[in-house]
Amino acid sequence: MRQPQQQPQAQGQQGGQLPVSQQDVQKAIVEGGKALVSSAEKLGPHLKNGGLTTSQIRNIYGMVKKMEMQEFNPHEFYLLKPKLAYAAKRARARGADQLSQVLSWAIDEVGTDEVKFQRFVDFFEAILAYHVAAGGK
After folding, report:
1. What is the rounded (10 degree) CA torsion for 31, 100, 126, 49?
2. Does residue 62 belong to any structural domain of this protein?
3. How many domains, in total, are found in the chain?
4. 61 lies in some domain
5. Which residues face 17 on adjacent strands?
6. Alpha-carbon distances, residue 117 vs 45, 113, 135, 136 (angstroms)
7. Which of 74, 82, 80 lies closest to 124, judged by CA?
8. 3, 49, 88, 121: which is deepest, by most CB within 10 A?
9. What are the phi and psi torsion angles at 79 (to 5°)?
């Protein structure tokens, strides 16, 4: 069985390395808890420094919270990936591109698993919280 290629670090389109790897994000979704909080704690301030605003994050976060309130639909959830890509292009901020990359990794890890979907929601919420705590506007 062919293993998907792993990227240790990702670069945003305008440069700058992410403080977490794809493996860190996968571990956050699989394990939750300490791994999830650790990755979010690194990402929040990093994304703020990349020019991402709280309102830009909340636009996508609102969609995720609506999904959480309904019965889990893997198809609808997976369609977040193109919405993230679109939002990142509109935002024109390095942080938006990087958030799109990180959440795409997380979406791939969730797949059709409802428990992992809940960890995704927790992860996204923690990223938003650390972004605001770092002074994100």
Report:
1. 130
2. yes
3. 1
4. yes
5. 11
6. 24, 6, 27, 25
7. 80
8. 88
9. -70, -5
Max Cα–Cα distance, the chain, nearest Å: 45
Note whether 120 and 29 are within 8 A (CB): yes
Q: Is residue 17 part of a domain?
A: no
Q: Which residue type occupies 31?
A: E
What sign for the dihedral angle of Cα 89, 90, 92, 97?
A: negative
Residue 56, both tokens = 């830009």
d(CA 38, CA 56): 22
Paired tokens of 75: 């198809």
Distance (Å, whole) CA 102 – CA 59: 16
| Residue written as token pair 């670090």 | 9
Q: What is the pLDDT of residues 64-121, one digit of tens each?
A: 999 999 999 999 999 999 999 999 998 888 899 999 999 999 999 999 999 999 999 9
Q: Could you give the CA distance from residue 20 to residue 29 in angstroms, rounded to a whole number? A: 13
Asked whether 93 and 51 are in contact (CB, 8 A), the reply is yes
Print the domain residue range for 118.
Answer: 22-133
Q: Residue 116 has which token pair? A: 């992992």
Question: What's the pTM value of the predicted model, to 2 decimals?
Answer: 0.86
